[in-house]
Amino acid sequence: MVKLILASAGLVIPSVALVLALACPCSDKGDDQVVGFAEYKAPPAGGGTKESESAAATLDIVATADSNKDFSTLVTAIKAAGLVDVLKGKGPFTVFAPTNAAFDKLPKETLANLLKPENKAQLAGILAFHVVPGEVKAAEAVKLDGKSVKTVNGAEFKVTVKDGKVTIGTGEKNVATVTKTDILASNGVIHVIDTVILPPAPATPAPAPKAPEKK
After folding, report:
1. Domain 16-193 CATH (choose: 3.30.230.10, 2.30.180.10, 3.40.50.720, 2.60.40.10)
2. Residue 108: pLDDT over 50
3. Fewer CB near the terminus (10 Å): N or C of the chain?
4. For the residues 14-36, what does the mean pLDDT come to?
5. Can you tell me the mean pLDDT for 85-109?
6. Exposed/middle/buried for 144, CB within 10 Å: 0-12, 13-18, 19+?
7. For position 212, what pLDDT does the model report?
8. How far apart, in whole angstroms, are the C-alpha atoms of residue 13 and residue 27?
9. So where are the chain's domains?
């Protein structure tokens, strides 16, 4: 059985088009291997109502992150990307939150550059890859084993459950392990991860065919 641990954390998100996506947590139903977390809403534990459960979680995602010193880098990134108001919004969101230690795995110059104002959109895109519209608890997330999930970024990551661990990512060199789960916020749920994952680079369009030369 997959062992899931409870704890406390927070996370990140996007730019203008991405903000619109966050405001509307809808899901596409094309490929059944590609799912949105909005489709998976577990019933509250213990037979309680969603309203009573949310009442207990009075802090929003940003405040939850800001209340824990292990997420100071995350909070800095949220502010630099201009996403504070978005993540304080109604949601709901499911966020996969990298810890300070996760950010420390990035080259120092890379993180420093991402935090510069001129790279705000790029940072927002990376953070958006850690956010899925809708809310899903750990018990439902494990049911997504082997499936790809569409993020607010627009790109997808794969969920894998193996040897009691849940991982998300796009390949062996771009994968994060979920270390703590079900941190309730007033506008969603947070799962903590040990690595910052990067969205896949957009495909380079094929060059347009050249018109035949006139003789």
Report:
1. 2.30.180.10
2. yes
3. C
4. 40
5. 93
6. buried
7. 63
8. 17
9. 16-193
Q: What are phi and psi of 50, to 5 degrees?
A: -60, -35
Residue tagged 């979680």 (tokens): 57
Structure tokens at 12: 């990140």
SS3 36: coil
Q: What six digits make up the tokens of 40? A: 């998976």
155 exposure class (CB count in 10 Å sphere: 0-12, 13-18, 19+): middle
Model confidence over 117-150: pLDDT tens digits?
Answer: 999 999 999 999 999 999 988 998 999 999 999 9
Q: Give the count of beta carbons closer than 10 Å to the beta carbon of residue 108.
A: 9
**Percentage of residues in the chain with pLDDT exceeding 90?**
50
Q: Which of 166, 24, 146 is nearest to 92 (CA)?
A: 24
Angle at 124 between CA 145 and CA 178, to 5 degrees: 30
Q: 183 vs 35, 53, 74, 106, CA distance in Å?
A: 22, 12, 16, 25
CB 178 within 8 A of CB 171: no
Question: The tokens of 176 are what?
Answer: 């994060």
For residue 24, give both structure tokens: 């509307």
Neighbouring residues of 24: CB distance < 8 A, sequence distance ≥ 6: 133
In the structure encoding, which two tokens stand for residue 21, read together?
A: 């996506």
**Given this model, what pLDDT does residue 201 score?**
79
pLDDT at 203: 56
Kindly give, in sequence order, each residue whose CB lies less than 8 Å from that of residue 15, ignoring residues fewer than 6 positions away.
81, 82, 120, 121, 124, 125, 128
pLDDT-derived band at 207, boundaries 50, 70, 90 = low
